[in-house]
Amino acid sequence: MQNDNILNGFVYENIPSYGLVGRPTHSYRTIVHGRVSGWDNYLKNELNRLCSLPDGWDGYDSPAVKFENAECALHLLSSIKQISDNSGVDLRKVIPDAPYLVPVSGGALQAEWHLDGYFVELFFDGALPVTASFYTDDDDIYEEFSFDCGGAQIDTSLLIQWFKRIYDLQNVEQEAA
User: What band does 153 get if pLDDT is binned at 50, 70 and 90?
Assistant: First the structure.
């Protein structure tokens, strides 16, 4: 049974336990918190819309996005925004705007950032771990990792490092042009 407004009240904040982006040992974790980030309204509205898609929205009897996938996406994406909002100016420049949210057949969900030839995608599909991918349109880079979205804490450090890397690569390209 799905609630018409399934994602009210879920907001997350980061705890930067070892500093900002840099060495892979840095850790960013999230906890449930009462503040609302800049992405929350967009995320809640879009995720509620995707969870309310009619059966067969894709032409193949696919159900709407499953609540578990939307909840996991909200948790993770709000965490990333909270890290940005609570960090120094340097990190705020690195983290891009909210991703595109795309329904996937079978009730899965994908969050996508398209950043001038660089792509970061998160794939949410129920009990499976979340799959995160970072690649370029010329296939020079392809990296992937998986993590569990359950529980109140998620380590987002690899995602933040990817965004930092994209930012740095784009700056090098601009300087070379």
Answer: low
